[in-house]
Structure formats: structure tokens, C-alpha cells
Request: fold
Amino acid sequence: MGIYSHKFCLCIRAWKLPGYNKNMKTNIYLDVDGVLVTKGGSITNHAPSFIEYVLTNYPDTTYWLTTHCNGDASKPIKNIGHLFDEKTVEYMKQIKPTSWDTAKTRAIDISLPFLWFDDNLFFEEKQTLLEQNLLDNWIEVDLGKNPNQLADFISSFPIPVNYPTDRH
Ligand SMILES: [Mg+2]
Reply:
């Protein structure tokens, strides 16, 4: 709860920063393992509702950011689609691919507001975000700590911090 509250506060503060434009498109980057699917290979709590929420609100700017993808948006669906209901799979079909090597941050367009839902950060990824003052746009998913965290995101969706107009 501690980390989540901290991030929640930062996100709320973003509304008050000068230059924030609510109409600015936010890119959503979604990891799969540890976010939508457990290590044991079953869907995580509230994953279908979370996917529905994200694709309803960000239908054109949601991306797979997972080793399952590698440039092909149909691959994650081939890998995990069978775990989900048809409606959720239809939403998943709207998710765009990313292609990256070594570090997921290489696929993130840091010139635009973004939220990256992931359970894990590697060294280079963390360093990149820190250097750009964008670490708070990594939304740490820790379902071990809070198994219902995806439902919390639906009721209080994060807002990206430090969008380009505030950066110098
Ligand atoms: Mg993961």
C-alpha cells in the first residue's frame, strides 16, 4: 500500500503542474507476465476488467511491452489469449506491437506522456527513466503485495507525470 499511495499522490499532483494538457494522448505500455498472467500461467485478478478499461479509454495508444511480442501484436494473443474470454481477446486485438532489444525503455516513446505497467525493472530501464525524470511513469505492479491492484487501477487510474511541456 505504501508504494501505491506514494505513486497515487504523485499522479494527482500531475494535474496541478503547469502545461498539463488533458487532451494529450497517453501511451499505455503493458507487460504480460506478472501483470496479466501469473507465473503459474493463470490470469491475474481483474485482468479482463483492466484490459477492458485500458482499451476503452486508450484504444489507439496501448502497446504490448513484453518478450511475448517482439514486433508482432498477434504473438501475445497466441500465447495467452486462450486464458481469457472472447470479449477480452477482442480488446487485446487493439493492442499495438513494440519491438525492442535488451531494454524495454528502448521501445517507449519518452517524448509523449506514458504509463508503463510492469512488475519488474532492469538496471538499464531504471537508469533511463531516472535520467529522464520519468521513473514515476513506471507503474509498479506487485500482485504479491496487493492481489487486487488491477482493480485499484480501474477505480483510480494513474496519470503520467513529467510530460514534455514541463521538461527542459
Ligand atoms: Mg513481467
